[in-house]
Fold this sequence. Notes:
Elements: H1 4-12, E1 25-31, E2 42-47, E3 58-60, E4 66-70, E5 75-82, E6 104-108, E7 114-120, E8 126-134, E9 143-150, E10 157-163, E11 168-173, E12 178-183, E13 190-191, E14 209-211, E15 214-216, E16 243-245, E17 250-252, E18 258-263, E19 271-278, E20 293-294, E21 304-306, E22 310-314, E23 320-328, E24 334-337, E25 341-345
Parallel strand pairs: 1-7, 8-14, 8-15, 17-25
Antiparallel strand pairs: 1-4, 2-3, 2-5, 5-6, 8-11, 9-10, 9-12, 12-13, 16-18, 18-22, 19-20, 19-21, 19-23, 23-24, 23-25
Amino acid sequence: MRCALLILLLASLSISVHAQNPDFRIIGRVFDESNHGVERVRVCALPIDYAQAPQMPCAFSDPNGNFVIVTGRPSQYRILPDKSPAGYHWQREEFWRNPTLSLLDVTLTERNPSASVSVPLGEKNGLLTGRVVDASTGLPIENVKFTMCHVANPRICGGTIVKNPDGVFSVDTPHVPFTLKISANGYEDWWGPNGAGRSSAMTVAAGARIELPCVLKRNQSAANRALSEAEKQPLKNLPAPLLLSPADRVEFSIYPRHTRLEWQAVENANYYFVEIDMCDGRNRALRECIDPLPFSTAQYVGPVKVQGTSYEFDFVGRQPGRWRVWAVDNKGVEGFKSAWRVFFYLK
């Protein structure tokens, strides 16, 4: 599972800092439970004074698990490995913390400018997989939110939003017992493993996978409303807007990342919804939208209501994004959604 906070943080951090003194460095090796070196692990050194000096140097491990982090200055650092795409989550977040792993700190000083560390990757997180469908129609539900909280401390929560046109999900779980809520717009919440266990505790063993089929019931307000594209009808729902700009798969090399979206007006439209997603930006060479999550600002999270035929915003980071638009008539009935268009910010 990739939460929006982690994607924002990893997309914005640089692999190295402009070192004042390259002699200040942390040399180490990251390894798995079999003591094998693990490659392509992002290892970061969080300084104790991060709030005053918000730079976090990082490096990727080589095929043997070896890495060198140039910190550039003396400080106490917490060593944090991350390979979340493979199910090994960042230990900085309390929700993901593995209780069997000790937190690893090192101190660099003028007298001792370098340090050597061995970094255990620990156990892989558990996994929930399955498909979410509508109880009335059997159709997949595209946009679903997963919320999990530790049983021992319900204030420690995490989760993600899964966007999949087939309703398929694959969600990582914490290492400790947790409660589960699955929610979607227009539907009653699903709780626990069977849908009704609001306080039911769940546990997924490290590295294990549990299949969890979910059938969500509509709430009363959505009983007679089309919630999926397959339910919409050409003469009842407005057509999808024609997208004008930017072109699909355009690459931007500008900063600030000010973006203007434009589309053609739809007859009888009262207003429009614009939906913008941010995609995983850790692989700079990738030209696809992987693990889309709703782009959010201080003004909104998710689709934004627009009266005209354009919308401007500042994108979050050097990573892919995508957008689509749909019209709403004067009765509040949503029209067909446009196809997604993808864009890539390179700086």
